[in-house]
Amino acid sequence: MDTVLSGIRSTGNLHLGNYFGAVKNFIKMQEENNCYFFIADYHSLTTYPTPEDLHNNVKSVLAEYLATGLDPEKSTIYVQSDIPEIPELYLLLNMNAYVGELERTTSFKDKVRTQPNNVNAGLLTYPVLMAADILIHKSHKVPVGKDQEQNLEMARKFAKRFNHMYKVNYFPEPQPYNFGEALVKVPGLDGTGKMGKTAGNGIYLVDDDKSIRKKVMRAVTDSGPTEANSIITEPIQNLFTLMGLVSTPDTVDFFKEKYASCEIRYGDMKKQLAEDIIKFVMPIREKILSIKSNNDYLRKVAEQGAEQARENASKTLREVREIIGFRKF
Ligand code: TRP
Fold first, then answer.
1. How are strands ordered across the β-sheet holding 141-142?
2. Does 301 share its domain with 285?
3. Which end of the chain is less packed: N or C, by CB atoms within 10 Å?
4. Of the listed 138, 194, 256, 315, which one is catalytic?
């Protein structure tokens, strides 16, 4: 069975796009593989969160993933900073990471351009820490989005370099995990493109009813169809796509027919969509809030995850130290 590792950013709430995309796939992935999911809180230090924010962010992310279906009985779920073996492997990998290649990564060059006053060494070696996350479990596969492909490529490079340097075949070269069927693309509310955090066009699982209504009512539309059976424009198709995810087929058909006969009133459609989103999100939101307020449960999950992860991580580190030559007398 493949070992699959997923790293989750420690900031940001889940929106509907995440829910129908990555999260749905994670749930399936954990049935078929030996999965590790961890919250990358060390990485977040490159942007200096306050201690309260750091802690709260990790708590929210953990609660949201547990509420949406990550199962601590099926996977190992842990917080990166609970695993001291990761920074130790990071130290060792740093010795074989070249400043030149780190400086040439796209994400580092972006940071140099956008925040020239805070180009810290943590940013430079970000891909090395990520490689340590991956290699500590000798992972075979890692699900990554487009923006993380280069980092995964660096992890492969460091794995190969280690194997070559010590003439061993120790680390597998981690490959991208493919979700099989095409990812569900959830559109945003701004007329074009998909739902995303940076686009600011998202509906979050923890949004309250009022803000969901407000966001949906503000969604971009057009001036309405003027000819019977005309092709649905992109902003309206986006509303239909969202409806397809949260409303009954009857509801979708009803508005499709209204569109085809040019009788559609977007205000009515949006009202219906908002209520159906609220109905869909409500039980998930309640579960998130209930888990988030259950500190004992969160502690238990994190402790159990850390224990399982450390068992595997310490084995890797012991072997790596032996290979490198740190040996007992
Ligand atoms: N850098 C990833 C992101 O921003 C998070 C991450 C940290 C990660 N370590 C990882 C992802 C290891 C996959 C594997 O999304």
1. 76-79, 34-40, 3-9, 141-142, 175-176
2. no
3. C
4. 194
Q: Is 39 in the pocket of ligand 1 (CB under 6 A)?
A: no
Domain span at 61: 3-184+294-324
pLDDT in tens, 44-63: 999 899 999 999 999 999 99
Q: Are residues 247 and 100 in the same domain?
A: no
> Is position 197 annotated as part of the catalytic site?
yes
Report whether residue 246 contacts ligand 1, using a CB cutoff of 6 Å: no
Shared domain check, 316 and 252: no
Do 170 and 277 sit in the same domain of this protein?
Answer: no
Distance from residue 87's CA to the centre of ligand 1 (Å) = 15
CB 40 less than 6 A from any atom of ligand 1: yes
* 59 in active site: no
Residues 6+ apart with CB under 8 A from 286: none
Q: What SS3 class is residue 114?
A: helix
Q: Is the pTM of this model over 0.85?
A: yes
Q: Are residues 109 and 135 both part of a single domain?
A: yes
Distance CA 112, CA 39 (A): 25
